[in-house]
Amino acid sequence: MNISEDHLDRHKTMKNYIKAKMALIKNVKEDDYVIYNYDDNVLKQEIKPYKCIKIGFSFEEKIKNSINIKNNFIYDIFDKKLIDLKKVLIPGNHNILNILAAINVALLLKIPTKEISARLYTFKGVEHRIEYVANLNNVKYYNDSKATNIDSVIAAINSFESPITLILGGLDKGADFKALRKIIKKKKISIVAYGSAAKRISKTLRDAANLYLTDKLKEAIEISYKVTHPGEIVLLSPGCASYDQFLNFEQRGIFFKQTVKAFATA
Fold first, then answer.
1. Do 114 and 67 share a structural domain?
2. Best CA proximity match to 203, nearest among 188, 185, 225, 181
3. Are 160 and 232 in contact (CB under 8 A)?
4. Per-residue model confidence (pLDDT) at position 9
5. Helix axis angle, 150-157 relative to 93-108, nearest 10°?
6. Same domain, 238 and 139
7. pLDDT of the residue at 43
8. Orientation angle between helical segments 93-108 and 113-122, nearest 10 degrees
9. Is residue 136 classed as helix, strand or coil in its secondary structure?
10. In this structure, are residues 29 and 50 in contact, taking their beta carbons and an 8 Å threshold?
11. Same domain, yes or no, for 89 and 157?
12. In this structure, are 160 and 247 located in the same domain?
């Protein structure tokens, strides 16, 4: 469990969104387990009143009686090596947090540690979540259509060292695009903004990055194809909902993949 800004078009305020998120565990009992991101300071405070068995996981701190990270290894509660993170295929620190959460669930279900490690070492990720699509002219394309909030976009950007052409936009949910300014200035990023959110993205970020503005996702992909140099990355990580042009984020991701792969046969 974690909390990050999202769905403010529906909930109007972050306070309302937190209240809705915490409703997920409102009926927990003393012998129920809640596995949560200890690095999330908001969640860490919100969860305090709940009387249940709380299992925290952290990328930053060592937690007593929990699995922990040290020197690129995940250790179990007995300080025994459990996972060699160098053997994990999926990129990004956010995925390491996902792995910590998944391992905690697996251990509670008494799944053998050998099976846990075997699965993690062969897992290539989930469709639409920083999914590798193609390498065209030494430019790598990634589909992160599931990223419908700003925290997810930041996590995706942090997964790469190479310069990025970021396709950002879609249906505006009231996201705080200003939160992207710091990472955009820190890394070499160009932005192709599209959809109903494009004008607000442009107004917020045009002085922080090279920015291209368009209406349709197809046009955004075509622009990215033209302006991205060999050795760089094109990343669809929209930070917005898909409903302005697609039925859902899955359809948006499939469209992105089909369009990219069509370049290879053009």
1. yes
2. 181
3. no
4. 65
5. 110
6. yes
7. 86
8. 150
9. strand
10. no
11. no
12. yes
Give one DSSP letter per residue of 138-180, joined into a string. TEEEEE-TT--SHHHHHHHHTT--S-EEEEEESB-----GGGG
Task: Output the pTM of the full model.
Answer: 0.73
CA dihedral 134, 138, 139, 142 (to 10 degrees): 30
Task: Check whether residue 62 and residue 171 sit in a common domain.
Answer: no
Domains identified in the chain, total number: 2
Q: What is the pLDDT of residues 110-142, one digit of tens each?
A: 999 999 999 999 998 889 999 999 999 999 999
Both tokens of 207, joined, read 């002085």
Give yes or no: residues 114 and 164 share one domain: no
CA 80 → CA 36, 77, 100, 171, 199, distances in Å? 22, 7, 15, 46, 52
Least confident segment among 11-20, 152-161, 190-199? 11-20
Assess whether 137 and 61 both reside in one domain: no
Residues of the domain holding 45? 8-122
